[in-house]
């Protein structure tokens, strides 16, 4: 259980890295398909969004975990510790977001009667992808990804220094 405490930070950061990787992939896929009027199933491309949700209960976020640990500290008399450790055991839970992909079928209609996918009025349906918004999503996801990498590097350095003592 002791090694589990040290590796919880890596699992949490890994979930954050995975969530941001998915967010970057969906944004880049949206940009690549901004002018796709038909997919294999014959419909216009549906915009994809990476939606991050809280992890499993009862620790749906880090704040809930801290509140439970604080309440244990408030109700435990420090004289009852056996002296071997004064630290609390962190429950074995996965913290961090879970990510799902949702589709948005907003379309923009462009008049182009010569296009092979034009309807009877000469309009072609394209996904309503805003390239600037998608680039902003990619940049934001990239920054959060870098922050998670910094957490991993910091944790590795702390463990390394602990082993050197």
Report what the structure shows.
By secondary structure, this protein is an alpha+beta fold. It has one domain (about 1-55, about 95-165). It is about 50% helix and about 15% strand. It has helices at about 1-30, 60-75, 130-165, and strands at about 45-55, 100-105, 105-110, 125. The longest helix is centred in the last third of the chain and has 34 residues, at about 130-165. The chain is elongated. It starts with a helix and ends with a helix.
Average pLDDT rating: 79
pLDDT below 50 for ≥5 consecutive residues: which ranges? 83-88
Largest beta-sheet details: 2 strands, antiparallel
Radius of gyration: 24 Å
Overall domain count = 1
H and E order: HEHEEEH
How many DSSP helices?
3
Mass-distribution shape: elongated
What is the first-to-last residue Cα distance? 21 Å
Spatial order of strands in the largest sheet: 1-2
Number of strands: 4
Q: Give me the secondary-structure category.
A: alpha+beta
Strand content: 5-15%
- Which percent range fits the helix content? 40-55%
């Amino acid at each position: 259980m002791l090694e589990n405490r040290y590796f919880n930070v890596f699992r949490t950061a890994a979930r954050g890295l995975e969530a941001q990787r998915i967010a970057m992939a969906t944004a880049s896929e949206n940009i690549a398909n901004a002018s796709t009027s038909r997919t294999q199933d014959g419909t216009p491309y549906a915009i994809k969004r990476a939606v991050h949700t809280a992890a499993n209960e009862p620790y749906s976020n880090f704040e809930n975990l801290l509140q439970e640990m604080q309440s244990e500290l408030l109700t435990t008399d420090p004289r009852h510790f056996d002296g071997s450790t004064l630290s609390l055991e962190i429950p074995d839970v996965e913290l961090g977001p879970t990510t799902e992909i949702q589709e948005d079928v907003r379309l923009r209609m462009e008049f182009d009667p010569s296009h092979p996918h034009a309807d009877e009025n000469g309009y072609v349906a394209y996904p309503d992808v805003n390239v600037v918004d998608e680039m902003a999503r990619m940049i934001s996801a990239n920054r959060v990804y870098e922050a998670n990498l910094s957490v991993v590097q910091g944790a590795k350095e702390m463990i390394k220094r602990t082993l050197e003592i």
